[in-house]
Amino acid sequence: MSESAIRKAALASKARHSVTLYPKMGKCVILTSVLVLSSLPTSVFSQSSCHGIHVNILDIQNSTGVVACALFESPVGFPTEFMNYATNIMVIKIRDTRARCDFLDIPQGTYALAVIHDENMDGALATNWLGVPTEGYGFSNDAEASMGAPSFDAASFPYDGRDLNLNIRLNY
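The line above is the sequence of DUF2141 domain-containing protein; the predicted structure tokens follow.
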């Protein structure tokens, strides 16, 4: 065999092996990348989450209607005038007698929460002819409503700007 024929055969052999080698390397690189990326926590890919006040509503009697959570930063209008004076209002559909209100990006301060189970979805706490609530209600700190709504001070809590998890039990 001539020297040029040997060179051509050697080059052809390298070309064949490189064609078969690189797809295998490509598959390995892709597989390795997928494995590495899937092992990273999801927080790496998501935007930074805002801290907030997270409220789990407990003891919901049924899944009828909605839960309305009102966050107040002062005693003005607490708790009955939430439409006019609440800092934030959140209305959540009840799913399997569960609801959670998340107030995000809230500045540091002192707050109080009022929650109602608005079964008839009229935007207010239904009462009987004596003024006794006929729908569920609750307040932060489990402040009790005896002979009227609790004061802002009884329901207030400090918030330092970090995540705060609260539970509010409904009374019927």
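Note on the example: The chain has two domains: 3-44, 52-169. Residues 3-44 form one domain.
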